């Protein structure tokens, strides 16, 4: 059994991961809600199947992207592969998300390109961490010696309050992985540009881009984003020291998002988030882990204080 000093160290690292995960990308509003479904979200085969829809003639990029939000929204789920770069630090994530009833899903983050990677390895046995996002919060799966430390339990649960405390009030980063909201954010710039045809991940796509600034926020209301969400975006940009960011979206012939990127300058250096979407309609596990296999993040704080004072 680990000693009290090691117990405190591991507990502190586990607690710190809430900040790492939510600050990287990917987290839902997590407002109080009933427990998540106990079965995987159903696939939507019709959304994933090729369609005959084509881009209407003489339609503005903004109008076409509105159609994209409808098609992508109907797909309900997709597999995702993302890369997050902040300055010289890079993190990667892969998994699947479901946006039919809030953003939920499984995502494994590879922190080997981040300073937090070594701390992750103490908990999971490698420099990667599996997360599950459900309607009632975020779960981190642990392994190795940390399982023994937590009496054989394999998951740490972070409630909305835990995440808000760690991130200064923001709990919507996982929602940033939503391809529908990504397109709406581009539309909200009010100045979408069609860059032309490009091949992305082996698919023929059309590339659109635009820049969103703090000054654009007041003009974006009514373009698919609620005033509350616009306030969250503004707070996010302001906190990171971002005055504007560029948003790029690549759309295929079925009017589904294939890739989305966001770039800008922050206090920590240039950031870039890139997300690839595939296998629309894929089943996604949105069930929380068994309660008997879960420990609350709030209990870890007490564990850390207890260990550090021994």
Radius of gyration: 20 Å
Describe the strand arrangement of the main beta sheet, using strand numbers: 7-8-9-10-11-1-2-3-4-5-6-12
Range of strand content: 25-35%
**Distance N terminus to C terminus?**
15 Å
Largest sheet: 12 strands, mixed
Mean pLDDT: 75
The share of residues in helices is 25-40%
- Named at the architecture level, the CATH assignment is Clam
Low-confidence stretches: 1-9, 15-56, 168-172
Structural class: alpha+beta
Strand and helix order: HHHEEEHEEHEHHEEHEEEEH
CATH class bucket: Mainly Beta
Number of domains: 1
Tell me about this structure:
The protein is an alpha+beta fold. It has one domain: Clam (outer membrane lipoprotein receptor (LolB), chain A), CATH 2.50.20.20. It contains nine helices and twelve strands. It has a twelve-stranded mixed beta sheet. Strand 7 and strand 8 form a beta hairpin. The longest helix is centred in the N-terminal third of the chain and has 21 residues. The protein is globular.
């Amino acid at each position: 059994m680990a000693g009290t000093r090691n117990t405190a160290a591991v507990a502190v690292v586990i607690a710190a991961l809430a900040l790492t995960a939510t600050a990287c990308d990917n987290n839902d509003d997590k407002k109080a809600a009933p427990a998540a479904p106990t079965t995987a979200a159903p696939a939507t085969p019709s959304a994933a199947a090729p369609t005959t829809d084509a881009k209407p003639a003489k339609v503005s990029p903004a109008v076409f992207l509105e159609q994209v939000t409808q098609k992508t929204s109907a797909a309900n789920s997709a597999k995702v592969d993302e890369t997050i770069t902040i300055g010289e630090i890079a993190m990667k994530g892969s998994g699947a998300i479901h946006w039919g009833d809030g953003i939920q899903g499984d995502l494994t983050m590879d922190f080997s390109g981040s300073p937090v990677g070594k701390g992750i390895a103490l908990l999971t046995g490698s420099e990667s961490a599996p997360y599950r996002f459900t309607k009632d919060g975020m779960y981190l799966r642990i392994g190795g010696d940390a399982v023994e430390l937590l009496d054989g339990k394999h998951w740490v649960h972070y409630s909305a309050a835990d995440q808000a405390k760690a991130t200064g009030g923001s709990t919507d980063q996982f929602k940033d992985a939503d391809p529908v909201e990504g397109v709406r954010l581009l539309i909200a710039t009010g100045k979408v540009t069609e860059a032309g045809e490009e091949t992305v991940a082996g698919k023929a796509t059309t590339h659109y881009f635009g820049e969103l600034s703090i000054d654009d926020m007041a003009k974006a209301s009514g373009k698919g984003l609620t005033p509350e969400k616009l306030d969250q975006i503004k707070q996010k940009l302001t906190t990171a020291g971002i005055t504007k960011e560029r948003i790029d979206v690549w759309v295929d012939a079925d009017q589904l998002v294939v890739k989305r990127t966001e770039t800008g300058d922050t206090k920590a250096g240039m950031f870039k988030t890139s997300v690839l979407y595939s296998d629309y309609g894929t089943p996604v596990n949105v069930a929380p882990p068994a309660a008997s296999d879960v420990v609350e993040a709030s209990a870890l704080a007490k564990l850390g204080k207890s260990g550090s004072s021994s």
